[in-house]
């Protein structure tokens, strides 16, 4: 196996997963995902996070290739207990029985519950240090990025920040491992989709972490998913800062749920009128065909959101219901909202969307539009009016 050096004696020992279809059994990953782990081969040997259990054999082979079969692992640092990063803990313990596991109090509570491990633990708190020889590690507690126990590990010698799930991305590492080795055009969208669906709910904790880490000199960010950052460090930190403050661009995301096309027709009218009023970034999604993770990612990018639903058994179309629950759960803030929909014999979709609008506290740009049956002059005019109002407010905001 080829060794991937981050510095003279720090190595990437991650693995690629091209088989799993749904990350966390929810989010599509058509281009796979990587699980990044790192090993520091100093006077003392330390592993920083592990990998998902299905890849443990490949992972152990990589570790042995670097340190040889005559050395042991002294420390296993767990920045994040989620099983895609702690899945190899038991295997590490079996191969290196004297390894001390480094984590915080909440780490160890989870470690015992997940794997039944409660011995040979090295407790660290915010600001604590660990000497390995020429390398000295410092630990920063970053809770809720995106679990309560999450922390980051900073190597003070080589200025490497092992950031856990923060600054990560969907997508495998296909040859290139560092951002400057990769065509980042693919990862740009996947980084935002990863942030918006995995980390985004905890925006205030992102801001706290960014402030805590702001004084560090960082030459490399080594996350547990996606590329290792060494050229685009400022770029990824700026994106996290912007997204966690809900800064958006001029544009509109239109999402609808429809059975027979009437609600879709309304979406098309709205989209066309937005374009005629100077809005270029318009994305229209059928909630039955596009996974919510892609929609939510676009909502993080664009200020305007217009949601439409037909009625379904006196309620909202089920796929739209699922989408708005995810939006509510994600705590997304500071958008402009419009609501529309249709029904045949009894309403429900628009009513539920209006309730969502009241709960989400976004700026409402016009009264909701609801039509019975197919498109008619009144509903057409009201869809046009909604689009014009949205375009006007966006132009005012981004002037």
TrEMBL record:
The domain of life is Bacteria
The Flavodoxin-like domain is annotated at: 252-399
Any one GO molecular function term: FMN binding
InterPro entries named in the record: Flavodoxin/NO_synth (IPR008254), Flavodoxin_CS (IPR001226), Flavoprotein-like_sf (IPR029039), Metallo-B-lactamas (IPR001279), ODP_dom (IPR045761), RibonucZ/Hydroxyglut_hydro (IPR036866), Rubredoxin-O_OxRdtase (IPR016440)
Give the protein's cofactors: FMN
The record, for Pfam families, names: Flavodoxin_1 (PF00258), ODP (PF19583)
Alphabetical list of PANTHER family matching this protein: ANAEROBIC NITRIC OXIDE REDUCTASE FLAVORUBREDOXIN (PTHR43717:SF1)
The record's family statement is: In the N-terminal section; belongs to the zinc metallo-hydrolase group 3 family.
Q: What is this protein called?
A: Beta-lactamase domain protein
Q: Which organism was this protein described from? A: Chloroherpeton thalassium (strain ATCC 35110 / GB-78)
């Amino acid at each position: 196996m080829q060794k991937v050096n981050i510095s003279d004696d720090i190595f990437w020992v991650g693995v690629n997963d091209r088989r799993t279809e749904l990350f966390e059994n929810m989010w599509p990953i058509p281009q796979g995902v990587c699980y990044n782990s790192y090993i520091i081969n100093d006077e003392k040997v330390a592993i920083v996070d592990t990998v998902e259990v299905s890849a443990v054999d490949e992972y152990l082979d990589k570790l042995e290739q670097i340190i040889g079969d005559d050395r042991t692992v002294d420390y296993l640092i767990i920045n994040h207990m989620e099983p895609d990063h702690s899945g190899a803990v038991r295997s590490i313990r079996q191969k290196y029985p004297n390894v001390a596991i480094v984590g915080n109090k909440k780490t160890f509570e989870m470690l015992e519950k997940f794997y039944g491990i409660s011995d040979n633990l090295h407790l660290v708190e915010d600001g604590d240090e660990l000497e390995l020889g020429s390398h000295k590690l410092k630990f920063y507690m970053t809770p809720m990025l995106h679990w309560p126990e999450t922390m980051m590990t900073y190597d003070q010698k080589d200025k490497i920040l092992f950031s856990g799930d923060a600054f990560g991305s969907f997508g495998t590492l296909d040859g290139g491992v560092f951002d400057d080795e990769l065509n980042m055009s693919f990862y740009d969208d996947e980084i935002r989709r990863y942030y918006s669906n995995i980390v985004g709910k905890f925006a205030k904790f992102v801001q706290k972490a960014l402030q805590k880490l702001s004084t560090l000199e960082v030459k490399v960010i080594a996350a547990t998913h996606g590329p290792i950052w060494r050229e685009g460090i400022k770029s990824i930190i700026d994106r996290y800062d912007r997204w966690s403050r809900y800064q958006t661009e001029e544009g509109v995301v239109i999402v609808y749920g429809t059975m027979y096309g009437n609600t879709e027709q309304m979406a098309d009218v709205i989209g066309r009128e937005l374009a005629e009023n100077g809005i270029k970034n318009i994305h229209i999604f059928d909630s039955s065909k596009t996974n919510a993770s892609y929609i939510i990612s676009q909502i993080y990018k664009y200020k305007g959101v217009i949601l439409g639903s037909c009625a379904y058994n006196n309620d909202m179309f089920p796929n739209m219901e699922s989408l708005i629950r995810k939006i509510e759960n994600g705590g997304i803030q500071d958008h402009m909202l419009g609501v529309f929909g249709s029904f045949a014999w009894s309403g429900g979709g628009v009513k539920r969307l209006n309730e969502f609008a009241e709960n989400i506290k976004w700026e409402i740009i016009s009264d909701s539009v609801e039509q019975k049956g197919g498109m008619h002059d009144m509903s057409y005019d009201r869809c046009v009016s909604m689009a014009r109002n949205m375009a006007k407010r966006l132009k005012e905001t981004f002037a």
